[in-house]
Amino acid sequence: MDRRHFLKLLGLSPLLSNLLLRKALAAETPVVAIAEDRDFSRATLKALNALGGMRRFVKPGNVVVVKPNIGWDRRPEQAANTHPLVVRTVVAEALRAGASKVKVFDRTCNDPRRCYVNSGIEAALRGMKGVDLKYIEEERFRPVRLNGRTLRQWDLYDEALSADVFINVPVAKHHGLTGLTLGLKNIMGVMGGNRGSIHRHIDSALADINAVLKSRLTVVDATRILTAHGPQGGDSHDVKVLNKVLASGDIVAADAVATTLFGLRPEQISTTVAAYRRGLGEMKVDKMRIVRV
Length: 293
Known about the structure:
It is built from 11 helices and 12 strands. The protein is α/β, with parallel strands linked by helices. It has one domain (30-292): Rossmann fold. Strand 5 (141-145) and strand 6 (153-157) form a beta hairpin.
């Protein structure tokens, strides 16, 4: 039984439950695993195992959503989308942990069919039993009360909201607006409506969304990172091969450590800072336990 469910059983108010939960999480030292391997499937598996394996996050019978970045009509080597081998390994491990179904989807920026095919993700998941690679259906967005600091309400994808476990699998890359796009920003793929309208206060808006839709596990694809001209990229000269995959149960910690791969500090990325100040996770690297495998 997780802490949130336990606090609910105690009959505490949502406000008090969230306060106690944040204090409990703050008392823990977040763990971020960094695995390096030229075999991207093996790197992903090593990162997951360093956290104790997928069974820490997925229980038998769970319906799991794996949310990669499939936003762009780009090939894997162009580093605009999550690498298909990383996605396939996360999905396979969720199934091996006993998931009854794994759903994979993203609200793309380019034509969805071209994105799903050219990213390599459609082919990587083909034939896997218990896996549902889905195109976003606009009628499945529903209004969710956020009561955030920037967003009071927003339409979110119902299959992300109803999942037992939400696993966030972003690619690590440059972004012209936010500096970088990692786990916290990858949540935009389950937002409906005019996402561009949040750009003015994107750091606070993303904290509002992530405060409601929690990523149980964040797996950051840093097998090859896009260092410039993101988020779409396209020029191979902007891609740096690192052969790394990061994983953490703390999305802010995962983003913070991934930021250092670009030679940047977490406090330079406003989305990370906003989430940290909101109590959504740890930003300070010296307060984490980093496991390298």
